[in-house]
Amino acid sequence: MHEFSLCRSIASTVAQHAAGREVEVVRVRIGHFRQVVPDTLAYCWELQVRDTPLAGARLEVDHVPAVIVCRDCGASTTLDMPVRSCGACGGVNTDLVSGEEFLVESIDVASPAAADRAAT
Ligand SMILES: [Zn+2]
Asked: Does any domain span residue 118?
């Protein structure tokens, strides 16, 4: 299941940026071509962060549609299937505009005040 390796890589990126702070929300951008199943990703994330300092961090996924632009007619097409042909003229001479993203967009860490309350 490739969601597991995605989650492992998200968790290691987030742990680096959090630098020991408590993380509340993790936002990731994932392109359509990554073919990630949201439920599977959420499940893998839970398993991945369980018993780690990231436990309890919520994963928010921003899905990026797969979009191509046709070099022949200039039309842009949003793809449902990973077949890169132009929706206007049917040509396959296309450039991928989006859909292969996989990145950690931002993280929310607990505010220092909240962390203080938790510590006392
Ligand atoms: Zn075209």
From this structure: no
How much distance in Å is there from the Cα of 71 to the middle of ligand 1?
A: 7
CATH number reported for the structural domain that contains residue 99 in this entry: 3.30.2320.80
Residues of the chain with pLDDT below 70 are: 1, 112-120
CA of 88 to the centre of ligand 1 (A): 5
pLDDT in the model for residue 120: 46
The pTM of the full predicted model, rounded to 2 decimals, is: 0.79
> Which residues fall inside 5 Å of ion ligand 1, going by CB?
70, 72-73, 75, 86, 88-89, 91
Ligand 1 mean position, distance from CA 103 (Å): 30
Residue 106 β-bridge partners: 27
- Is the residue at 117 inside a domain? no
> Are 76 and 65 in contact, with CB atoms under 8 Å apart?
no
- Count of domains for the chain: 1
